[in-house]
């Protein structure tokens, strides 16, 4: 689950006790809507603005401790596969006879369509069951995906690869959706779907709304009686949108569990605080949950924020990073490297999981790759195989190459920051991306100063 308007760059402190007026109004409407669906705010949760995270949740009156429930939301408040299957008007937009087993979409892509469908009903003064929720969604998102083209040109390959992958996937899904519903028009306004209503720009925003705000559950627990969309979908229907609950922000210092629990009349989606940095959280103190043990790269590209000194962070390298290091380092460039070594590394996927961790040091695969490239003269596959999968103690001799590699990435990321600083203006996504790059520089600098990068372990 997630929110994308959480801004980790420093800003002027905001009042921590009063939400912005229009947000307060929309949240009051959402409170009333959820209350009609059976939600009882037993933990006295309230949405406020906090200096570091923006909008978040706290309890107005209760002191909460590990083991306490944070929220209990009736399952009928969730926007799940059951919701979509029960909506006759939405199902009618998708002609089941046109479904193609070789052209399927993810459930996330379908929920994005449902948000656009409900948004159109809401905007045209028709009855939308999600109107109260739609008014609380962010107006913009801060993933690198939404950076301006000039900003994307200043980002490292690791970010660009993920952004390009996201763009490719979104466009593929959109083309499938366009084939299915693009020729239909809205009976109320006469506009064409996927041309006037479900535009690509609107679909992108809806897709990331679902991507960043979903909770995950066992799809069998909310299995609908109807299965209209089954042959259209690839993968599980194991996500749902959870109005109001998705205002919780993420922290690496807490652990939470979520489950569907019987309540006598149906089911509740129950979120429980398992561990926290403090033994007791006071009223009006922000409550956090865990989205999982996620590194900053994942948080940034999927949710649009990062954590300073994230306990779950690490920095990953690619084989091209090492190749660039060789090309730019005079001492290393003077050596000879047989192409069979790089071919062996690629064929055995040794370039996967090449990273450094501030506490654990250099990953095994990174040590193996550095050893094979810089310490071995052999280049026959059978010999390389014996070395790569042999005694691990031999891989401790990767200094100073590891130091060279870390210093190379620090310099490279500083160059990306400088390039962003030279742009006349940054989008909100560009500002967040720049702050993330600075956090990477700090992380690598700390690693460079650690025992892992200064001497053999």
The CATH homologous superfamily of the largest domain is named set domain protein methyltransferase, domain 1
Please report which band the strand proportion falls in: under 5%, 5-15%, 15-25%, 25-35%, 35-45% or over 45%: 5-15%
Number of helices: 17
What is the overall silhouette?
A: globular
Outline the biggest β-sheet: 4 strands, mixed
Annotated CATH topology of the largest domain:
set domain protein methyltransferase, domain 1
| Cross-sheet strand order for the largest sheet | 1-2-11-8
Strands, total number: 14
The gyration radius over C-alpha positions equals: 25 Å
What is the CATH-assigned architecture of the largest domain? Alpha-Beta Complex
If you average the pLDDT, what whole number results?
90
What share of the residues lie within helices? 40-55%
Low-confidence stretches: 1-19
Total number of distinct structural domains: 2
């Amino acid at each position: 689950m997630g929110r994308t308007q959480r801004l980790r760059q420093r800003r002027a402190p905001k009042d921590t006790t009063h939400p912005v007026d229009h947000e307060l109004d929309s949240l009051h409407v959402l409170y009333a809507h959820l209350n009609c669906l059976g939600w009882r705010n037993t933990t006295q949760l309230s949405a406020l603005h906090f200096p570091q995270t923006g909008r978040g949740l706290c309890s107005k009156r209760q002191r909460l401790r590990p083991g306490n429930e944070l929220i209990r939301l009736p399952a009928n408040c969730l926007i799940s596969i059951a919701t979509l299957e029960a909506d006759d008007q939405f199902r009618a937009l998708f002609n089941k006879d046109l479904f193609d087993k070789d052209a399927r979409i993810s459930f996330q892509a379908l929920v994005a369509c449902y948000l656009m469908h409900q948004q159109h009903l809401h905007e045209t003064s028709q009855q939308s069951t999600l109107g109260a929720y739609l008014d609380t969604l962010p107006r913009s998102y801060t993933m690198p995906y939404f950076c301006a083209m000039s900003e994307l040109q200043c980002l490292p390959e690791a970010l660009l690869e993920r952004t390009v992958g996201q763009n490719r996937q979104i466009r593929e899904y959109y083309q499938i959706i366009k084939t299915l519903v693009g020729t239909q028009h809205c009976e109320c306004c006469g506009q064409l779907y996927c041309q006037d209503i479900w535009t690509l720009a609107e679909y992108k925003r809806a897709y990331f709304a679902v991507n960043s705000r979903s909770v995950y559950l066992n799809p069998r627990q909310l299995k609908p009686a109807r299965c209209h969309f089954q042959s259209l979908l690839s993968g599980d229907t194991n996500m749902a949108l959870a109005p109001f609950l998705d205002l919780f922000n993420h922290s690496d210092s807490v652990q939470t569990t979520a489950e569907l629990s019987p309540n006598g009349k149906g089911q509740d989606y129950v979120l429980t605080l398992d561990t926290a940095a403090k033994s007791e959280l006071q009223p009006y103190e922000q409550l956090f949950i865990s989205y999982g043990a996620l590194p900053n790269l994942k948080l940034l590209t999927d949710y649009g924020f990062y954590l300073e000194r994230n306990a779950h962070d690490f920095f990953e390298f690619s084989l091209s990073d090492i190749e660039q290091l060789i090309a730019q380092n005079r001492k290393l460039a003077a050596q000879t490297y047989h192409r069979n070594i790089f071919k062996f590394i690629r064929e055995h996927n040794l370039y996967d999981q090449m990273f450094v961790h501030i506490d654990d040091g250099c990953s095994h695969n990174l040590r193996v790759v550095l050893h094979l490239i810089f310490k071995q003269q052999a280049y026959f596959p059978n010999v390389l195989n014996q070395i790569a999968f042999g005694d691990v103690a031999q891989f401790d001799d990767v200094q100073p190459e590891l130091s060279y590699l870390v210093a190379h990435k620090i310099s490279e990321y500083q160059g990306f920051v400088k390039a962003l600083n030279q742009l006349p203006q940054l989008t909100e996504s560009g500002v967040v991306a720049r702050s993330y790059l600075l956090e990477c520089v700090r992380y690598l600098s700390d690693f460079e100063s650690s025992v892992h990068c200064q001497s053999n372990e």
